[in-house]
UniProtKB/TrEMBL annotation:
UniProt organism field: Planococcus kocurii
Residues of the HIT domain: 5-112
Protein's recorded name: Protein hit
Motif (Histidine triad motif): 97-101
Location of this fragment in the whole protein: 1 to 113 of 143
Amino acid sequence: MTNCIFCKIIAGEIPSVKIYEDEHVFAFMDIMPLSKGHTLLIPKTHREFVYDMTPEEAANLFSVAPKIAKAINETFQPEGMNLLNNNGAKAGQSVFHFHLHFIPRYGQSDGFG
Ligand code: 5GP
Ligand code: ZN
C-alpha cells in the first residue's frame, strides 16, 4: 500500500531499527518508545486490522512472538512485558497497518502504567 508508513518501512523507504525479518514479518523499534526496547511486529502484507488477517497470516506473525520477546528480554532485561494490539482509532490505533506491540516493563521507573 503506497501511503502506509509501515509498508514504506518494510520497503526500506523509511529508515527503521530492524530487529527481525523473514518472508512474512518485519520487527523494528518503535520511534516513540513507551519504554526501553519497545518493539513492533508487523505482517509484510498490508492488513489494517486483526479482522483482515487470515489464520495463516496471524499464525505466521504470532509464531515469531516468542523469539522477539526473548531477544528483547536478553537485550534489555526488563522485569515484565506487555504484548498488545490496537484495532481502530477508538481503540488507540494510529497507524493502520496491523502491528503487535512488545512493551518491556521496568518496575517503577518505566514511566508507563
Ligand atoms: P498504535 O497507536 O497504532 O497502536 O501504534 C503505532 C505505533 O507506531 C506508535 O507507538 C508509534 O510511536 C509508532 N510509529 C509511528 N510512526 C513510526 C515510524 O515512522 N517509525 C517507527 N519506528 N515507529 C512509528
Ligand atoms: Zn502497510
